[in-house]
Structures
1.
Amino acid sequence: MPVIRALGNVAKQALLAPACGCQPLTVAIRNISFSPRQVTSGSDASFHSVSFSETDHPKVLITGGLGQLGVGLAKLLRKRFGKNNVILSDIRKPPSNVFHSGPFIYSDILDYKNLREIVVNNRITWLVHYSALLSAVGEANVALARAVNITGLHNILDIAAEHGLRLFVPSTIGAFGPTSPRNPTPDLCVQRPRTIYGVSKVHAELMGEYYHHRYGLDFRCLRYPGIISADSQPGGGTTDYAVQIFHNAVKTGKFECNLKPDTRLPMMYIDDCLRATLEVMEAPVEPLRMRTYNINAMSFTPEELANEVQKQLPDLQVTYEIDSVRQAIADSWPMNFDDSNARNDWGWKHDYDLPELVQTMLNFIGSDSRIAQAN
């Protein structure tokens, strides 16, 4: 261990030295990663997994828990496994309703020692790793996205392998690029993304698969389409227009879309997304022929979505002011996902199509808006 630490310090100094006049990013980085648990049998995928026969319920840690998906997943898992068996973590201060809804811990995924202490002290058996900078935000700060999305992942992988965790890391439509087949996009094909977000997600898929074969890590991954949720604000993603339109439709009756009207992308309502995450985590090892699966529900364009919303709110005015960065990202992404492997291997099935999505979103946001006005 002293040798490893010494080598790590040397590598750290070299990596943090400015090159070509660039300002170095000062973050805590583990430059030499290794799994303390060397597994010789690479074919036993269940070596580290904790089954329900060994424990009544998993003990779950969710990183990046204050994002769009973390709070919703915590609510779902707490109903299933008990309030105190699911711990949310983030580097931000949680709102009071989240803080009082169940356990919350401050955690920086770049702080390996702190992460390890949380896992050990709370006897964590499942780790859901949501910490990441999304597509548009990542392009605005590549250095930070690289640190959070890649260095943070390495910390998570090492800790999960060392402590025998079942690990879930989401991937995305952004893991594909302009040379990938777009309609439909299969699970296995060319992946050459052109955003740091997409590159980091391909890296996560491959590293997770490697740790699975090399160390027996029970790694599970779903490629999410664009996720639409009523109870969270857009977080800097290219598909955020499909959330913002509902808020604007109810509050102002006007919406300016930053993508072209015919830009087709795969989408999913958040309830389907969270249920898929739980189902793949609970799935037995045997039918899982892959470590990363596409999942899908629907595919639509901004124009099709606007038309469906206008069936409920005919006065909605929609205009288009194209964001060239987001449009270029969207044009490199799949138009439709082939998720037949997920449906065949572990029984994935979505509940929400476009009409159900629109009705649910308007009901939720409209009700929330009326309550705010009354208050």
Note: The chain is about 40% helix and 15% strand.
2.
Amino acid sequence: MTTFSYITFLATLTIFILTSTVRSCPASDRAALLAFKAALHEPYLGIFNSWTGTDCCHNWYGVSCDMETKRVADINLRGESEDPIFQKAGRSGYMTGSISPSICKLERLSSLTISDWKGISGPIPACITSLPFLRILDLIGNRISGEIPADIGRLERMTVLNIADNLITGRIPRSLTNLSSLMHLDLRNNRIWGPLPLDFGRLRMLSRALLSRNYISGTIPDSISKIYRLADLDLSLNKLSGEIPASLGKMAVLATLNLDSNKLSGKIPDSLFNSAIGNLNLSKNTFQGYLPDVFGPRSYFTVLDLSYNNFWGPIPKSLSQASFIGHLDLSHNRLCGRIPAGPPFDHLEASSFAYNACLCGKPLGACH
């Protein structure tokens, strides 16, 4: 080989090596992923079998990289998935272990989904709040414990925080209301206690707030009504007390309000019955007094559940003026008097009116 040919060969080889290096993920990202993998045990599907070779951006199951920087941007590992690897095995996934803090070394991480594995335990790594590009954190359906990181509010880009169906304890951090881009918050079915932050309404981009099945206490913050995009609010099965803020009935797009199974009391605001809310569940609280006779053409309910309270007096006649009521449950109260005739009462079953003081008329027994 001539000197010229040798120099040309070396130059070509150098360019190839440099190009290959640029196209593959950095060694630091690869090392972080392998340390993350080492803390987990998945015995049935072999999803980590593809995590081999030097390029973690290419054919590593559940890993995606940024096209320009070649840094790891997304980790998407779902234990219940339609992926062929699950269909071939004929089963959903089960994984044990914990989430290694090494995940925090993936400095460009935008999305972290490790959901529905049923057996992953341990805490959410506190260092996760140091990932400036993190938009999605989805850890639903595991056995993750500990508290929500206190400085979660540092994640200014976060749009989805889903840690439902785990064993999370502690209070909702005050800093959570700093998540000005948050659109979906799901904390259901954990062991979270203490009050909702009074400035919850700072989450102006929020469209869904799902916090049922916890031990949340205190009152419902009036500031929630400032979240003009909020369509779904579920605070059921907690320990909330006090009255419902009347401002909730004035929210433009709030369609579902579930407050059942709490310790709420006082008068139900009239505004709730003539609002955008179409699914209203206030059952199993300690409301009392007459039901407001304020229903009208703007009242449209797929579900209206007021059961298991202490309402007395007659059923409001204005209920028959509602434009639609699909399911109505007034059972287990102290209501008395004749059930109004006509819609919606003519399509409801006796169970909708059972266990009251002295209701009568169809679909119950005749009035005497």
Note: The helical segments are 3-23, 27-38, 84-89.
3.
Amino acid sequence: MRSASFTATSLILYLFLFLLRRGTLTTGEITPLRRGFYAGVCPEAEQIVRETMRRAMTREARSGASVMRLQFHDCFVNGFDGSLLLDDTPTMIGEKLALSNINSLRSFEVIDEVKEAVEKACPGVVSCADILILAARDAVVLSGGPNWEVKLGRKDSLSASQEASDNIMPSPRSNATFLINLFHKFNLSITDLVALSGSHSIGMGRCFSIVFRLYNQSGTGRPDPHMDPKFRFKLNRLCPLNGDGNITGRLDATPVKFDNKYFKDLRRQRGFLNSDQTLFSDDARTMAVVKRYSVDRKAFFADFVEGMVKLGDLQIDQPGEIRRNCRVVNNAPKEETGEALASFTLET
């Protein structure tokens, strides 16, 4: 089985070679992103996205957290370009089966639904990448979190790469030092790291992602010492050794409400994921930010918005288009288009 982690040295080498090959990762300099980009050509786009997200979250509240997570997993891999949404083809292995995504990412059908609604109003105008970032913002708002204006104008990528995702996306096992170094490579600060980790204010996590914390933290054969005993007891019952790794548990105590309870839980050593609890338990710099957010929701909301804007600005100079179907590039061979449509039909 492939390892889900890699050394900081490997990450630095990968980023250097990747950026040398593809151009420089920037924050908004390649594509002229701006607020109100579609005001003149599809003024109803943002309202359509929000109403479609509202319906999806009424059917299943968890879909909001799932859609928001898609933005994170898209932005870090070759910039924010909708590459994550592409299905595999006979000639391309995409990102959906990458280590951090397989059996984990979900609600792609919600983006399909939003895209279909926008296409009916404005065919061929709004990119899948822009739909995704709007839907992620609306997921936060509809869960009780902050609202903000999203910069738009992205093009959709023509390809995706499982290898690129494997080499970039962090593991749930990651510690604070690794995460700080990773975010630094994208010009994201420690404050950005902790604020954006607060996205786990909503949603669920799999037993697969925490079983090592419960029974063999760092190869010790013992549980993570940074875990409240009563909380660990509950997780032991939810996630028994050799149990079903796809069983899910709450990422914080209020998994459908976007608030600062996540940070309160970290202070009580009740973080679900190792990559969450480490922010309070393993580094004084991130601990200070966790403490601040646990008592100041307004500060968390403000910094979260700033971090989300920075994520959305990550771009790489590469060819793009406005996809008609978020799962497949335009003018793809008929068999690939058919596979994407069949996938959509089965999931919905």
Note: Strands lie at 26-27, 156-157, 204-206, 248-250, 314-315, 320-321.
